[in-house]
Amino acid sequence: MPDTLKQSVIDAGKWIDQQGWCPATGGNFSVRIDAKHAWVTASGKHKGALTPEDLLQVDLKGVVIGSEKRPSAETLLHMALYGLDADIGAVLHTHSVSSTVLSRLVDGDVLTLRGYEMQKSLSGNTTHDAEAAIHVFDNTQDMPELAAQLHQRWLQRPLQWGFLVRGHGLYAWGRDMAEARRHLEGLEFLFACELEMIKLGQR
Ligand SMILES: CSC[C@@H](O)[C@@H](O)C(=O)COP(=O)(O)O
Ligand SMILES: [Zn+2]
What we know:
single chain, Aldolase_II/adducin_N_sf, binds 5-S-methyl-1-O-phosphono-5-thio-D-ribulose, metal-binding, 9-stranded mixed β-sheet, binds zinc ion, L-fuculose-1-phosphate Aldolase, globular, MethylthioRu-1-P_deHdtase_MtnB, about 35% helix, alpha+beta
């Protein structure tokens, strides 16, 4: 019987690849299995051509169960999110041009989106007339350090929908894969709009 959770990751990878949001072997994805485990993409795979064998079962500490393959280099960030919020069911990390460039142009730790109808694609938002805060973290190859920073900011106030890593990309999540995809698509649209505004000198 096909594993529908694994298939949801494979399908997301094909769609994300079609959007051009995961060039080369960039990006990584996961879906929650239960309270303490998730399927995470193996490291170094092209995310548009994943197979069921490219999905590795991992625990909250990022330890792989039942495979010798290497999990994503960023597994710890996925597992940190599952540990921080029991309602998170899927996480999608992408390397789009918009998220990579915009994250480098943001001064400080937060990108504030306001005035866009498409903010309503982010769960809980009912109007363009509110502010949506997207946190930005400096890039590092030190995943335990990045996971610790995420933990620290989350304790001040839980993050919503996604966060940016400067010059690197976007992490988006949702209660399930469908919501994670919607948040990813909504955020990518909003980032593209913000970049256009900057190019037009409106920021
Ligand atoms: C093209 S290298 C990108 C990696 O360094 C990393 O940022 C990434 O997103 C993919 O890493 P992976 O280990 O394949 O999950
Ligand atoms: Zn990455």
